[in-house]
Amino acid sequence: MFIEALNAFSLALFDGSTWQNMFAIDPQQVTWAEKIIRPVLIYITLLILLRIFGKRELAQLNPLDLIVIISLSNTVQNAIIGNDTSLIGGIVGAAALLGINAVFSYMKYRSKRFETVLDGSPVKIIEHGKIDRKMRRREMLTDSDLDIIAHENSLDDRSDIYHLVLDPNGSFLAESRDEIKDARFKRDVIKKINEISKQLADLNAVLQKSN
């Protein structure tokens, strides 16, 4: 059975139609220009949509945000590849995506204004402990979202956040009040001291047993 499978594979390997179907784009289904234009248009469209609907999807604060990110890739997949599923078609589409990304990255590097237009500016959600209701509503951040952000920054809850900024890349920068920082620092130091003391006690016990 193995020999038969090997022979069938060998015949398929040297069959011209195998390689032709893999590396040839069917002009009746899709053109070369379409394989390049499709991913470029989808790339630009996604940039615009993420710019309009905010940056919280990039932060993936809850399962809904994660579902959106995962579903986006499946939703636009057929729009990118069209009716062609050949290997060369996939390579061309991937090259087009990487190419347009390289162009936009270079333009961001060269122009601060273009970077601001493309990514937007950092959004201040909380300043000096006061929540900006307008910005919070625009980014649709719930109390639970703020608590999650606080926990990710080793804070007890949202009331401990003194400054909160949403960066263009979707990451949150949270700072607490100085007294909370000091209390957390002291708590961490005490914890480390207790760990070291326990290690020393265990080491001392081992040395005494060896003697």
Domain unit count = 2
Radius of gyration: 28 Å
Helix and strand composition category: alpha+beta
Order of strands, main sheet, comes to: 2-1-3-4
Strand percentage lies at: 5-15%
Q: Specify the biggest β-sheet.
A: 4 strands, antiparallel
N-to-C CA distance: 69 Å
Q: Unreliable segments (pLDDT under 50, ≥5 consecutive)?
A: none
Helix % is 55-70%
Written as H for each helix and E for each strand, in order along the chain, the element string is HHHHHHHEEHHEEH
Tally of alpha and pi helices: 10
Mean pLDDT, all residues = 79
Spatial shape: flat
Assembly level = single chain
Give me the count of strands.
4
Write a brief caption for the model:
The chain has 211 residues and is α+β, with helices and mostly antiparallel strands. 70% of the residues lie in helices and 9% in strands. It has 2 domains: 2-119, no CATH class; 123-176, CRO Repressor (2-Layer Sandwich), CATH 3.30.240.
